[in-house]
Design a protein that fits this description.
Number of strands: 6
CATH topology: Aminopeptidase
Distance between the termini: 35 Å
Oligomer: single chain
Strand content: 15-25%
Structural class: alpha+beta
Largest sheet: 6 strands, mixed
Number of helices: 4
CATH architecture: 3-Layer(aba) Sandwich
Number of domains: 1
CATH superfamily: Gcn5-related N-acetyltransferase (GNAT)
Radius of gyration: 17 Å
Order of helices and strands: EEHHEEEHEH
Amino acid sequence: MMANPPPGGISKHFSPPDLSGPASTMEPTPCYTVSTEPARLDVPLIHAFLSGSYWASGIPLETVERALRHSLCFGAYGPEGNQAGFARVVTDYATFGYVADVFVLPEHRGRGVSKLLMAAIHAHPDLQGLRRLLLITRDAHGLYRQFGYQPPADPSQILTVHRPGVYQTPQ
């Protein structure tokens, strides 16, 4: 039987760097908040993003809902309280965690939201002392390296079953 994530949530407030300098084309951004409160998650938004992503294309809503129930979820929220990003950790809360489904909506990118999500994951009290955190990415290596993620020292030790078309309906 799978345990549910711990109740409650952490909230961290984030003030992005000053982007008002002459070299910047971005305007300064207001604070973002990260919370692990399940009730705050915009499940239809998460499903819509994931179902169009390269890693979970076509994922059914029911699968997303089940994944959320059995993960420690982190929602990033903009100044109006709307969801701006998401990440989840599949974990046993003792030895291992798999960081998955990290995304920031296009209109919130470039404001430090992905770094805020990753910082919240690494600061969460229930994830301290894990022997291993794992993630898989095609295109965000620079972000994750800032948090200590590296390619495995010996890739021959890692085995996987990969079914990239599992959510696609047969034609």
